[in-house]
Amino acid sequence: MAAGFGHRRRELHALWSFREDVYLEADSRAGTLVLHSRWDDIKVPHPGRTVAEALQRMVLGPIRLDNVISEAADLANLHRLLERLEPLVVRSLGADQEQPLVSLVPLTPRSRLRVPPVPGDVPVRLSRFAIISSDGMDYRLESPLALHRVVLHTPEAMGLVGHLRRPTRLDAIGDAPPYFATLVAHLVATGMVVLAERVEPFRPAEFAEDTDDVLVAWSPVNLLFHSRSTLGRHDADFGATHPVGDRRGVEPVVADRRDSGLVTLYRPTWEGLVAADPPLGAAVEAANGAPPAPGPLTARELGELLYRTARVRSVSGPPGSPEETSDRPYPSVGSRYELELYVVAGDCGDMPRGVYHYDPLDHGLRRLPGAPADVGAALENARLAAEMDDPPPVLVIITARFRRLSWKYNGLSYAMMLKNVGMLTQTLCLVAAGLGLGAHPLESVDVELWADALDADWRVESSVGALVLGRKPPRELASGWQPVNDAHWPDLAHRLTPAGETA
């Protein structure tokens, strides 16, 4: 007995089944079977009694084909049919006929499996893009580069995969069972295990995925997020599927109001806006994203900026229902408006220093409890991130109430939220430019820092974006920049926005 791996003389059997979402329907009059799947309906005309029986049993779970069909001709016909049905067929390997060791599950209509021979003297390892997780029952190996999911059904399977955590040769593993090479060959076929591309004496083995110019630009997490938040390379539920039901965990259309009093903000008038606002083109050209210039902001400027970018203009749907939503000045994919704004005021007119939550329904700021040192630390953190000489007068933090999206959408909710952050950020920058202010988006946010400052659970509401506000920066073409396409337009636009002549 090899520790943890059972009897060394066991061999692996090939087991065959269909994906769990496949079912068969017989048309006795036409003499055909119809396989229904998530992708298509496939007709199998006149399959024959033994082939039809094998297909029916594959719907119920993994089988050995030679236990169902004894005639060589029928077995050959079945194999040819399974090649045609390959995207629906789960290939399993088992040391006995009842318990699969691993299963290779196709994920798309393009999934194909070709098992190569793996030389014993070539180093192999788990792909750096392979991610191990648990579904509560089994371990799963998944990769954004793979069109199969590998299900590890037993602790023994997980232990065998452990041999592949670093480059190793199959002929150098002394305590693995003899069928280990067969298992590794199937994992190579799925892309979960990779073979060394170059092996030289006294040098580490080289693997293609480590030097590929395309792959080196991706981290495993980012590539997995990209592949799972789009269609084409996975079989997960996707879109407006309401994964947690109609009510469970649904966030209200407007965040619950804090107990602190409301600081009412200035509301601009339409007439004033039309009379004084520069053209959109001027705001686009003037919004260069440079760090703002020194100088305080006024509460009036802050109020007008928030009113024109983030207020609730109207609401729709039964109050308190999951489908209640709102209309606001910036676009929102899904129209769920899951984003919240928090203002860290440092030097903003007569507004006391502090952290405030913007109430888009009542258009005001509600002050949050917090030590003065927290405000200074936040502004200093923003100053460093924006590479400014002095702390910004105002820092705006964008958070997301994730369940506004995740209760309804599967797969794409986080990607939708990121798009919405971009649209809100750009709206803030454009309106700020039109008001003659400087707005500079920050490259990153500190999730833990802001969870503490906002007294929030980062798993429920977390910071996803930030920008600093201040005076309009001077318009300068930095040294080394060469004009290409109407590079003077921002200069003209600068003069059309407020304070353009004196900035």
Automatic annotation (TrEMBL):
Listed InterPro entries: Bacteriocin_Proc_Enz, Nitroreductase, Nitroreductase-like, SagB-type_dehydrogenase, ThcOx_dom2
A Pfam match: ThcOx
Classification via SUPFAM superfamilies: FMN-dependent nitroreductase-like
Domain Nitroreductase residue range list: 328-470
Family matches, as CDD domains: McbC_SagB-like_oxidoreductase
Cyanobactin oxidase ThcOx second domain sequence ranges: 124-235
Superkingdom, taxonomy of origin: Bacteria
Name of the protein in question: SagB family peptide dehydrogenase
Organism: Nonomuraea salmonea
Taxonomic lineage: Bacteria, Bacillati, Actinomycetota, Actinomycetes, Streptosporangiales
